[in-house]
Amino acid sequence: MSGLTRSACEARDAADPLARFRDRFDLPAGLVYLDGNSLGAAPRATAARLEAVVRREWGGDLIRSWVANGWIDLPVRVGDKIARLVGAAPGEVIVADSTSVNLFKLLAAAVAMRPGRKTVLTEDGNFPTDVYVAQGLLGLLGGRVVLRRADAARLVDAIDDDTAVVMLTHVDYRSGRVHDLAAVTAAAHAKGALILWDLSHSTGAVPVALGAAGADLAVGCGYKYLNGGPGAPAFLYVARRHQDAARQPLSGWMGHARPFDFEDDYRPHAGIIRQLCGTPSVLAIAALEEGVDILLEADMAALRAKSVALTSLFIDLVDQECAGLGFAVASPREAARRGSQVALTHAHGYAIVQALIGRGVIGDFRTPDILRFGFAPLYVRHVDVWDAVATLREIMVAEAWNRPEFHVRAAVT
Ligand SMILES: *Cc1c(COP(=O)(O)O)cnc(C)c1O
Questions:
Q1: Which of 103, 133, 177, 200 to mutate to test the pocket of ligand 1 (most atoms within 8 A of CB)?
Q2: Active-site residues: which are they?
Q3: pTM (2 d.p.)
Q4: 268: which residues sit within 8 A by CB, 6+ positions away?
Q5: Per-residue pLDDT tens for 86-113?
Q6: Would you tell me which CATH number, out of the four given (2.40.30.20, 3.90.1150.10, 3.10.129.10, 3.20.20.70), belongs to the domain 6-44+299-403?
């Protein structure tokens, strides 16, 4: 690998069919933002939308807005839009709660749909909240069902006749490794198990075809590649064929068949709406809709192609500029097995990430030694990749990371 230059990166940006989308986001000049897989950038349209919802709808129309301004339909309306990003049909996705809470609801529903089976299977190193939520749920079930973990490479072999649900994250949050969603789904079904996918690190950057794969259940995050804002509501998917059987335990009134009849007892709504619990967060879903709308204007194949180009460029440039500086690439080098992020390892990873942030290159650190860089294809440019690697090299060559302040651990890394 030799001879990649900054001007070659500029030429790629000039030819980029998605280049026009960068302008739709508020991004400070001079900042290289490689953390859109953790908190997506702010769409410029979001502030105006929120202003309109607050002043005109809430301020002017007040409670009439639930119907007059369509507030009550927001979870389904935005869910139907997200469905298009994950290969689901209208009525199979709804916006609600957080990813963690949605995992709880769907995992509980899934375990109940496989009575007599005693295990939930996940992989070693799955995202902590997924495991913690499973542990909390299984504790409530009194130990009737237990959590099993298997190495990702041997996961399919670990599915057996006792597996109620296989619960996996599609794109690994650390390495960016992508599961073969269709193949693992088929393997779960071959043993009579259900599959529950966490699409937090895929939706909006990696093509997902839930319907074509025959997937049962899924959850995903609103504030990463969907650019819905900090703590944005999440979404969940239930395949149409399971919707009458999927009973979730947070049986709040918004999932009731007739919430405004104020009946004494719970009766689940038909379809996806029973997956709601309480009143939808209107301001937050309005903000999420702005992020989703931009993604729907872009072609998913073009997004994936650019994402692959950016992550491949980053790996090539690290090989070219940072050889011998102590880094290893912890993500798959084969593009087809990689999501929209690249993980490097380095013994001084934490301090190096802090030094990069000090110079306006924002990635993040994941314990124990991972430097993680996300490449949101809507707004990251090829020159950003060049500048990030050039800065990384400078920091290493000058040992600029080795300062006391860069070793102090912050509350959020
Ligand atoms: C980001 C992420 C979450 C986030 O869960 P919250 O409930 O929003 O905190 C969950 N799972 C995975 C795999 C994630 O990447």
A1: 200
A2: 127, 198, 223-224, 372
A3: 0.97
A4: 247, 251, 255, 256, 257, 274
A5: 999 999 999 999 999 999 999 999 999 9
A6: 3.90.1150.10
